[in-house]
Amino acid sequence: MSDGRFFISESDLRALAADLLGAGTEVIAPVAVDACASPAAMASSACMRPGMEPEDLEYRALTDASQLDLGRGLPILSLKGYFLPEHEALCRWKQKGTTIEIEAVPTEFAPRVVLAAKPCDSAALAVVDEVMNWDYQDELWNGRRAATTIINLACPVIDESCFCTAVGAAPDATTGADGLLMPVKDGYVLEATTEKGRALVEAHKARLVGSVPAETLGRQAADERSAASARVAGNLEIDAGSVRDWIDTHFEDPLLASLAIRCNGCGACSSVCPTCHCFDIVDEEEGVGRGTRRRCWDTCQSPTFTLHASGHNPRDDQNARYRQRINHKFAIYPLRFGEVLCTGCGRCTRVCHAGQDLVEILQAIDIAARRPDEAEAAAAPEPAPAAPEPVTS
Amino acid sequence: MTETATDVKEMREIARALLAEGDVRVIIGWEAARRGARPVFVTDPAEADRLIFDARCVHNLVTYLNPRRDHVAELGKIGLIVKGCDVKAVAGLLREAQLTRDDVVLIGVRCGGVLEENEMPAAVTLTRDNVAPRCYGCDNREPTLFDHLVGEPQPEPPRPAQTIDERIAALEDRPLEERWAFWTEQFSKCVRCYACRQVCPLCVCERCVADKTRPQWIEPSPHARGNLSWNVTRALHLAGRCVGCGECERFCPVGIPLSLMNRELQQIVAERYGYTVGDDPEQAAPIGDYRLDDEQEFIK
């Protein structure tokens, strides 16, 4: 009998996605998209740059089960946008004289399924749940969370910027998700971990094989899980508690106060971050006397984020703004909610073409916190490993 | 590699001397880090050996001269390492009175082209498949705006598999509705992080039009209207000013091919006003220049 784990072949997994789509359920999953997608066929030659990958991976609503990409790469943007969209209407208004009519937006959503989510992306949702239910219950966030069943796909660990295990996540974690797909020979081991996950399994039993031989597939799955965790742990090992306490007590420390010298303050890190959740609320007029109130992603890396109406700006340079990013993620949030506001996906590091490197920064803070005698050596970034030595010939 | 290494050695010597003699407080150049080359700020002459220069040094460091960057300005007088393309942006800042010539010491490096993708442990030989397309046809391999110039004259960068101009021509060949569909799709990806603006060495406005709320010129939401308005407005504000360094496109987290727009506007400015952006700050740009024979048939 089943121990809650099932085997599913790749074709049955696609068939399961097709069944869901057939029943009218929205299915969100990684999809390889043409980086230059356009209805015009010529566009790809105009937009493609030499050496560029023709395809990016993005979470998209499937229109066909064949689009489901099980290649285990990392989508450019996290799952965040499906719960906190880049922009969304909060209400619409109409004004005539002094009469204002407010039209509310729906806060209930149709059930939907996310397949093959990255464990770092689902974990981020669970972390952000805390602030979304802190004093105000965010109906839009909660409505989408309640309507969504998320099945993760265990991650092979993408590259040297991954560090999920250093912040309490793991490449095979199901935090924030309802189940896990673990790749094995010819298919996947599917494990449901919540009621929602079990309901999905129950509804699609016909596609599943109810036993996973422990000695073969079971062992293969377990082996890959531990190998992936070991790989990511090799990238960064810190003590998140020490990091939190050190940041909390070293606000003016030169290490924290001068992290951002090369930072352009562009905020791309916040856009791609699965846990950055700050938003701005704007009123956009859509004609005389009517408009929409929207919330849009915002970033603490922008000077206008904290600019007061008086003209005063408490975070008036980029060093202060960058410190805020680190402080919020690794001290303020864990002190208030017990969890680090980061799941180690590494997107911020990969997206930063100015070379701000969170792995290196956390390493430096960890050393300052736990091995202060080494901190001085670590304060200077690593010696240039690939610097060409001057040849004197 | 001998030649490159000699360049680097010379560059380090100059940097060391400038710092040691107090001529500058910081040298901004490139270093080799965990994920490849990146900007470095050297304040101690003993650390001048961190500086590198090779085909991975794609960044336009002139962005750090931007008067908005308080945390860099605080460091004191800057010595800046610049490629031929980068120094055109310095000329732009001088031309627009954002900088005075004495504010900065320019260490020019003769450059034979850079890589499109620079995040790698060591530089590789440039080929048609890895060269930054903007390097093709570089007209400033022998810069004229500098205080020090290092290195030997470099060979022309290889021709990329497809040049930016060829990509523009391919687009222009298509009917209007297809071009519209193309740009609509591209702008739909925009998340309005404003990375393009933040990294641009010439986006120097004290307060960007996108940040103004009274009136709200540009809708802040990343929907189709807001995104079109933002991207087109920015491109127009850079017409005749953009130096084609491509940093906006490189920093765009969602891969919008901004170079195509910027280059197209460069072509239009060249055609209409006979102006090509160079590194001579005395050469007036069309936006800041009035001539009796300026084209004006569009004024009706």
Which geometry of chain A do the CA atoms define? Answer: flat
In helices, the fraction of residues of chain B equals 25-40%
Computed over alpha carbons, the radius of gyration of chain A is 23 Å
Q: Return the string of H and E elements of chain A.
A: EHEHEEEEHHEEEHHHHHEEHHHH
The count of β-strands of chain B is 5
Kindly give the count of domains of chain A.
2
Radius of gyration of chain B: 20 Å
Content-based structural category of chain B: alpha/beta
Residue windows where pLDDT falls under 50 for at least 5 positions of chain A = 37-52, 381-393
Order of helices and strands of chain B: HEEHEHEEHHHHHH
Determine the mean pLDDT of chain B. 92
> What's the number of helices of chain B?
9
Strand content of chain B: 5-15%
Brief rundown of the structure:
The complex is a heterodimer of chains A (393) and B (300). Chain A has helices at 10-22, 43-47, 119-132, 139-147, 195-203, 214-233, 240-249, 254-257, 268-272, 318-337, 347-351, 358-370, 372-379; strands spanning 5-9, 26-34, 55-61, 87-96, 99-104, 112-117, 148-153, 179-184, 187-192, 279-285, 290-297.
Question: Any descriptors?
Answer:
heterodimer, A: 393 residues, alpha/beta, 2 domains, 7-stranded mixed sheet, 4-stranded antiparallel sheet, 34% helix, 19% strand, flat, B: 300 residues, 5-stranded mixed sheet, 9 helices, 32% helix
Walk me through the structure.
The complex is a heterodimer of chains A (393) and B (300). Chain A is of the alpha/beta class. Helices cover 34% and strands 19% of the residues of chain A. Chain A folds into 2 domains: 5-233, no CATH class; 240-379, no CATH class. Chain A has 13 helices and 11 strands. With 300 residues, chain B is of the alpha/beta class. Chain B folds into 2 domains: 2-150, no CATH class; 164-288, no CATH class. Helix content of chain B is 32%, strand content 10%. Chain B has helices at residues 2-20, 70-73, 84-95, 164-172, 176-188, 195-199, 224-237, 247-251, 258-273, and strands spanning 26-33, 36-42, 78-82, 104-109, 148-150. In chain B, strands 2-1-3-4-5 form a 5-stranded mixed sheet. In chain B, strand 1 (26-33) and strand 2 (36-42) form a beta hairpin. The longest helix of chain B is centred in the N-terminal third of the chain and has 19 residues, at 2-20. The mean pLDDT of chain B is 92. Chains A and B meet through helix 2, helix 9, strand 10 and strand 11 of A and helix 1, strand 1, strand 2, helix 2 and helix 4 of B.
